[in-house]
Amino acid sequence: MELLISSAILLLMLGAAYEALVLARKYHQKLADSSQIQQETMSVLSRLERSLSAASAESLEVALDSASVRFISAQTDQEFFDLDPSSGGPRWHRWVGFYLDGTTLVWKEQTIPASSTLPASFPSLDDIKTNTTARKVNLSQQVRSIFFEDGATTVSIVLETRSSLQKSNGLTVLTRVHLSQ
């Protein structure tokens, strides 16, 4: 009888330990997923902020749905801000477009001849999206929505990411970027 009682108590303790282990594993997965989505969101925002900080305010165009933006950039291939030595103004190096394709945030760019004056015409957002010769980088496949709002010298960005593993809800971040010119 004592052996039966001690076996039952041991089984209850093992069951409780197993449940604690399962809960700890679920918590760890959710924490890892939350950490991953935070890193992904901050990486995307960092890329957007660096690119937009070298943008020309005159060339900035936000789409009607506010989910895409295009501009001319003064960043070199090494991602440095380039100034014209004679005038001290920026030298424009490339067209850049950010747009949402489903849940993928796409960054497209095409180099142009470096110049301290803005080109007379700018490609449209649709032209940038369909351009097959432009460099294309998928920044994130976890974007639920993105919203660009053009101010006079700033761009507001609301980025909402979602969890790929669906363990956490995702993350929504608002930032403002000051344009260089």
Q: What report would you give on this structure?
A:
With 181 residues, the protein is α+β, with helices and mostly antiparallel strands. Helices cover 32% and strands 33% of the residues. The protein has two helices and eight strands; from the N terminus they run αββββαββββ. It has helices spanning 2-53, 125-130; strands at 61-62, 68-73, 92-101, 104-115, 135-140, 143-150, 154-161, 171-178. The strands form two sheets. The protein has a five-stranded antiparallel β-sheet. Strands 6-7-8 form a three-stranded antiparallel β-sheet, with helices on one face. Strand 1 (61-62) and strand 2 form a beta hairpin. The termini are far apart. 23% of the residues are buried. The model has no long low-confidence stretch (mean pLDDT 85).
Helices, strands, pairings?
Blueprint: H1 2-53, E1 61-62, E2 68-73, E3 92-101, E4 104-115, H2 125-130, E5 135-140, E6 143-150, E7 154-161, E8 171-178
Antiparallel strand pairs: 1-2, 2-3, 3-4, 4-5, 6-7, 7-8
Question: Numbering strands along the chain, what is their spatial order in the largest sheet?
Answer: 1-2-3-4-5
> Poorly predicted ranges (pLDDT <50, ≥5 residues)?
none
**Count, helices:** 2
Give Rg in angstroms. 25 Å
Helix content: 25-40%
Along the chain, the helix and strand elements come as HEEEEHEEEE
Biggest sheet layout: 5 strands, antiparallel
- Number of DSSP strand runs: 8
**Based on helices, strands and strand pairing, what is the structural class?**
alpha+beta
Q: Span between N and C termini?
A: 86 Å
Calculate the mean pLDDT score and round it.
85
Q: So what's the oligomer here?
A: single chain
The fraction of residues in strands falls at 25-35%
Principal-axis shape equals elongated
